[in-house]
């Protein structure tokens, strides 16, 4: 029997080496709203029908491992409240950020995919991107790993040779000079938190500083692009990296789901987990009313 509207709501949290603050903030949000918090440890999960979600249950998988995804896919049902815009969204989740952004008209740096080592073709790619410097990316990493700023042909050739030798097809992107890096958190149709990332010393990449002053309201252009990026991926929640150029133009680098959202909450007290839970509770009620 499915959950009734007056039954205590249940929130399933699929864990696999997830940061402690992610779990703690969401558990607190559940406690404050009378929601039962159930932690699912994917390495201990048993694939039985009784461990699937009931109608009206809420589900979020902050873990990024394939095993955790498989648990989510087993547990979910058409009447489970999630951050997917479509009930079966977890079966079709993927990346491919620049192409999908371009398709949906979300502003993003010019990007090409490197599929061969041809130096003639690489020269054409760089010309298409506006010349050096360019940014090279090997996908599948986090924290800036696999992202390189390239200023000359010798570095580009050696980087591409190495990346393809170890099985990667890197992306090349236009480099946006003097841009301010925003990290935004989208829930539903709004940005609930935004913070500015600070450049690393002697590096072009940025990091999230532990300073409340970097948390603030993003410009409208950054906000609009962030929401559009998350919706383009058919999601209702995500962490978005956006560059704001001094001219006012903005460029979405990527949108992540699941994502680490707790930085602005821990640093500046922004109740992101509360906004996430309120969104799922509202979606739960809508599903049960159908």
Description:
This protein folds into three domains: 10-93 and 277-288, Rossmann fold, CATH 3.40.50; 110-174, ATP-grasp fold, A domain (Dna Ligase, domain 1, 2-Layer Sandwich); 180-256, D-amino Acid Aminotransferase, Chain A, domain 1. Helix 1 (20-32) links the parallel strand 1 (10-15) and strand 2 (36-41). It starts with 9 loop residues before the first strand and ends with a helix. It contains eight helices and twelve strands. The protein is 31% helix and 22% strand. The relative contact order is 0.16. Helix 1 packs across helix 8 (272-288). The mean pLDDT is 92. The strands form three sheets. A five-stranded antiparallel sheet has the order 10-9-8-11-12. The chain is of the alpha+beta class and 290 residues long.
List the helices and strands and how they pair.
Elements: E1 10-15, H1 20-32, E2 36-41, E3 58-60, H2 66-75, H3 97-103, E4 111-113, H4 119-128, E5 134-137, E6 147-150, H5 153-165, E7 171-174, E8 180-187, E9 190-199, E10 206-207, H6 220-232, E11 237-244, E12 250-256, H7 262-268, H8 272-288
Parallel strand pairs: 1-2, 1-3
Antiparallel strand pairs: 4-7, 5-6, 5-7, 8-9, 8-11, 9-10, 11-12
Helix pairs in contact: 1-8
């Amino acid at each position: 029997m499915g959950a009734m509207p007056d039954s205590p709501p249940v929130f399933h949290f699929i864990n696999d080496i997830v940061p402690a603050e992610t779990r703690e903030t969401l558990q607190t949000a559940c406690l404050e709203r009378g929601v039962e918090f159930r932690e699912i440890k994917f390495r201990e999960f048993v694939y039985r029908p009784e461990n699937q979600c009931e109608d009206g249950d809420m589900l979020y998988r902050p873990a990024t491992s394939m095993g955790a995804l498989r648990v989510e896919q087993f547990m979910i049902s058409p009447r489970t409240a999630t951050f997917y815009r479509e009930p079966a969204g977890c079966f079709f989740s993927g990346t491919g950020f620049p192409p999908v952004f371009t398709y949906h008209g979300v502003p993003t740096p010019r990007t090409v995919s490197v599929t061969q080592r041809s130096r003639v073709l690489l020269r054409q790619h760089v010309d298409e991107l506006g010349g050096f410097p360019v940014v090279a990316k090997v996908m599948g990493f986090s924290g800036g790993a696999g992202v390189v700023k390239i200023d000359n042909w010798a570095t580009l050739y050696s980087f591409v040779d190495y990346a393809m030798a170890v099985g990667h097809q890197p992306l090349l992107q236009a480099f946006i000079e003097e841009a301010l890096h925003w990290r935004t958190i989208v829930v539903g149709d709004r940005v609930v938190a935004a913070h500015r990332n600070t450049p690393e010393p002697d590096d072009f990449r940025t990091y999230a500083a532990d300073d409340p002053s970097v948390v603030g309201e993003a410009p409208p252009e950054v906000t609009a692009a962030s929401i559009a990026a998350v919706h383009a991926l058919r999601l209702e929640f995500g962490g978005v990296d956006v560059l704001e150029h001094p001219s006012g133009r903005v460029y979405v680098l990527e949108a992540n789901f699941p994502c680490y959202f707790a930085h602005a909450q821990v640093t500046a007290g922004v109740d992101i987990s509360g906004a996430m839970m309120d969104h799922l509770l509202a979606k739960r009620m809508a599903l049960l009313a159908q």
